[in-house]
Amino acid sequence: MLRKLAVVTTAAAALLAAASVHAQTVKIGIILPYTGQFADGATQLDNAIKLYVKQNGETVAGRKLEFVRKDTGGIAPDVAKRLAQELVVRDQVDILAGFLLTPNALAAGDVSAEAKKFMVVMNAATSIITTKSDYMARTSLTTPQVNESLGAWAATKGGIKKVYTMVSDYGPGHDGEQGFINGFKGAGGEVIGSVRFPVANPDFAAFVQRAKDLNPEAIYIWVPGGAQPAAIGKALAERGIDARKTKVLSQLELTDESARKAMGDAALGIITGAHYDPEHKSARNQAFVKAYVAEYKRSPNFFSMGGYDGMHLIYEALKKTGGKTDGAALIGAAKGMAWESPRGPISIDPETRDIIQTVYIQRVEKVGGENVNVEVDKVEKVKDPVKVRMMKK
Amino acid sequence: MQSLVGVLFDGFAYGMLLFLLSVGLSVTLGMMNFVNLAHCSFAMVGGYATVSFMNRLGWPFFAALAAAFVVAAAVAVVLERTLYRRLYRASDLDQCLFTIGIVFISVAAFAFFYTTELQSARVPEYLRGAVQIMGINFAAYRIFLVAVSLAMAVLLIFLLERTQFGATVRAAVDNQRMARGLGIDVDRAFMITFALGGGLAGLGGGLAVEFVGLEPTFALTYLVYVLIVVAVGGLGSIGGSFVAAAVLGISDMAGKYFFPWLGAFLIYLVMVALLMWRPAGLFGKR
Fold first, then answer.
1. Would you state the pLDDT for residue B262?
2. A237 and chain B: CB distance < 8 Å anywhere?
3. What is the domain partition of chain B in residue ranges?
4. Cβ contact (<8 Å) for B128 and A264?
5. What is the dihedral of CA B216, B220, B221, B226, to 10 degrees?
6. pTM value?
7. Tens digits of per-residue pLDDT, A123-165?
8. CA distance B172 to chain A (A)
9. Which residues of A touch B256 (CB under 8 A)?
10. How many angstroms away from the CA of A226 is the closest CA of chain B?
11. Angle subtended at Cα B124 by Cα B122 and Cα B130, rounded to the nearest 5 degrees
12. Rounded CA gap, A275 and B205, in Å?
């Protein structure tokens, strides 16, 4: 009897202890593809999360933060959903964060909606993601946001009348193509031809030759980050397309740092639409890049920026709610929040919970012997155009 | 017409890269009868060796390529001595499971030591860009790839079919007991063959860095293409691998040019058609 009592008391004490720890800490579950094809993006994003925590302390509004990290291993919506459920039910996290890939973010969005948990999407860029849960906000970009801005710019200030498009044949590629064509045609441009190539495509020479046969004034390209930007950049150079004569337009992945390094001078002249580039000239960004390089020995990229701003949003929302962690309070605090990010002024649209930001038009140029992205123009306060149209209907 | 010639040449060069990557596997799989799915891991060792020697130690490109061959061959020997040889008599399934495990280990190991970032190495200026011959653009690096592959093919065929070493290896593979009875050191012959296969993969990996980039998932991405080349070419036939790689590279490129909507399927269609015509591969004996 005595023994039983002792067991019960210990168990009760353990429960109490667990409960009190839970009361003090805020648990954040991070879901990212730490291994597999997208591991590099996850690393860059997670590094920025760690940097933000290091710079701003582990305690917010009197409560200590605790992180639980889960790996999806790549595009795996079923895994992402299961991990999100486990995080909510077993680990009892208060906030879901991370999400590099659209299918994974969509799947976890259901969990956020059902469990009423605040969820911060730090990269996945398909427009509709944030409609999945009323407790979701995004701190990265939407593909149409950047590509429509680029398309409209190309047809107006860019002075381009006719364009050939070539994109990867899967969701994000279609989004990029659609976004660019919407913006470009909307501003009076004409698309003279399109091609979609397989996602797993090591050699682009044949597709580039098809484009070249039409001798277009400009080519729009959308390929996922990783090995492909360099491969297509080289194929352009080898098939005799000089980006300084035939204009080459794309989203920022095409000319990110490792791609530029691999392409060499073939990158010169490529124009990209971007929501963030580590070369962005502002004191805040220079401080961010310096701290990041000191910590991780490499430059941050747009993945990092999404993670960094995502953490900022979580910190500020927690401060505003005084440490309250229920989904409704946190998303309420996040709506309309505006701040000066290293990438420039950004805010969370109170209507759509999506990001409003500046889209930069940049061109690769040689500066001091190095090929860098130079800002040539910018479009301010861009909302996700797809949701703007949805709201009008 | 001119652009067609350019595209076909590009396809041929792409095929030659596949040849370099797969010829080592053709040797080990065809001659030693060992299912080595980790072949592209050796290629990856060569690729990372090239990048490291060039970027960290400042070696010139060609020296780094030679080093890639040596390093990959050395790694192959070590693994052969410690692990692979235990499985020479194991079933195909055991060999598959074992070597695919090595692939995953290599992917994780390179991600750990080199990060997951895309690696690149600057090749000499004269190998970059393109040269114009009769109004057709030929990429300098592709010409270089073709030249290296042709040289390698000739060298290998000569080595395996015209030299004492080649005869020893073929004897050891065809009938181990008889070869041992004749005083041939079968273990040594296998080790050297394995080193050669690994080294060739390493060379292919080193050459692939400039062409398709290098990430830790390289070992998995190219495994499929390499297996297709070996299957279509016929096991153990260097000439077969060469022809298969050329046919696949050219048809892949031509298909993408003329029927882009078929996309990545074409290479598989060609494989299926060729294997239905000749189930043992183009030059297969069994």
1. 77
2. yes
3. 16-117+139-277
4. yes
5. 130
6. 0.78
7. 999 989 999 999 999 999 999 999 999 999 999 998 999 999 9
8. 38
9. 197, 206-207
10. 6
11. 100
12. 35
